[in-house]
Amino acid sequence: MISALLFAADLPTADSLSVFDPASPPAYSIRELFWLVLGITGFIFILVEGMLVYCWFRFRTPRQGDDGHEPPQIYGSNPVEVAWTVAPLLIVFVLFLLVTRTVFDVHKIDPPEGALEITVVGHQWWWEFRYHDPDDPHRRIVCANEMHVPVDRPVFLRLESVDVIHSFWIPRLAGKMDVVPHHTNVLWFNAEKAGLYQGQCAEYCGNQHANMLLNVYVDDDSTFNKWFENQKQPARTEPVKEDLESFEAGRDLFLKTACVNCHTVRGTFAKGTFGPDLTHLMSRKTIASGLLLNDPQHLHDWVDNPQATNMKPGCWMPSFHLTQKEVASIVNYLKELD
Ligand code: CUA
Q1: Are the C-beta atoms of 338 and 242 separated by less than 8 Å?
Q2: pLDDT level of residue 1 (50, 70, 90 thresholds)
Q3: Ligand 1 centroid distance, CA of 195 (Å)
Q4: How many Cα neighbours within 13 Å face the side chain of 300?
Q5: Which of 193, 219, 261, 282 is 20 to 30 A from 144 in CA distance terms?
Q6: Distance 102 CA to ligand 1 centre (A)
Q7: Residues 192-213: b if buried by 16+ CB within 10 A, e if exposed
Q8: What mean pLDDT, rounded, does the chain reach?
Q9: Rounded distance between C-alpha atoms, residue 210 and residue 206, angstroms
């Protein structure tokens, strides 16, 4: 438990998650709408409550000359009826106009000029990001859980789900958008500052819903281009950390086990798409959708038994009951996939 807390302390965390600290045009629009609506409704609240409190005190005891009769009734008074029907209608109409304006600000059906286009696929319980390569539309550039985008450039997302309804939400960048099976929703943002922006699946989607963290790294242009060039490459075929023999032994074991049914490693025949693409696994800081630090120890524990209580019980990856030696061998291969 203590070690789990220590590891948790090392996980990348954003400075702020607050909708009141926007960093992208849709998030600014949403904050502006919030304050406007709060202002209008707050004013009405104070007016009505103020009159109520005033009447409590002003009329709390019978006044001199009060003969105990009811005051004149206003039932059926046309001016009063019209006033308290029209005033709320006008207020609702103003709110409607404000909301409509914000919806048009926030929602774009087509990608803005020069936008980076990414398809986001919600899975139980992780996120897949498919990038579109302008140079080669057939190239598969897929990563998981950690999205990289350039600073100050529009990003246009198409949101899809392969199982249940999820919800994509990065509070500082844009509003919530449902991620629905058999239907594509869209979302855009334009981050004004580099840094880490975090969010979370915002629609209950099963037992590991709470562990569907979203990490969006907004990079300066050169960092982003470097990252993107690396993601385009197929997986490493020669080790840089381990010796060649243990690298090849690990790779052969990986390719012989059920790993390949669910995971892709581009450049090998592992082409599964049920689980995260592992081609550049080590370019990610976390595994298990932001739950665990991506280091050899956590990789080992994960490959050994993802169902352990300190891992992600209930997730769709089973324990394959490999020996500790086999697990270590597979991790020797995985930790080279940078
Ligand atoms: Cu996905 Cu909640």
Answers
A1: no
A2: very low
A3: 24
A4: 10
A5: 193
A6: 26
A7: bebeebbbbbbbebeebbebbb
A8: 92
A9: 9
Is the pLDDT reported for residue 130 higher than 80? Answer: yes
Beta bridge partners of 161: 122, 181
In degrees and rounded to multiples of 5, residue 103 shows phi and psi of: -60, -45
DSSP structural state of residue 50: H
Work out the widest C-alpha separation in the chain, in whole angstroms: 105
For the CA of 202, the nearest atom of ligand 1: 2
| Nearest CA among 192, 195, 130, 123 for reference residue 156 | 130
One DSSP character per residue, 186-255 reads EEEE--SS-EEEEEE--S--STTGGG-EEEEEEE-HHHHHHHHHHHHSPPPSS-SSS-HHHHHHHHHHHH
**203 CA distance to ligand 1 centroid (A)?**
5
**Is the distance from CB of 315 to CB of 307 less than 8 angstroms?**
yes
Distance 212 CA to ligand 1 centre (A): 6
* pLDDT for position 8: 57
Nearest CA to ligand 1 atom 1: 166
First to last CA, the chain: 30
Return the ligand 1 atom nearest residue 206 CA: 2
Ligand 1-lining residues (CB < 6 angstroms): 122, 125, 166, 201, 203-205, 209, 212
Residue 278: pLDDT band by 50, 70, 90 thresholds? very high
Reported pTM = 0.88
- Per-residue confidence band for 67, with pLDDT thresholds at 50, 70 and 90: confident
pLDDT of residue 99: 95
What is the crossing angle of helices 296-304 and 324-334, to 10°? 130
Q: pLDDT value at position 2?
A: 47
* Sheet hosting strand 155-161, strand order edge to edge: 141-144, 126-131, 116-123, 155-161, 185-189
136 in Cβ contact with 233 (< 8 Å) = no
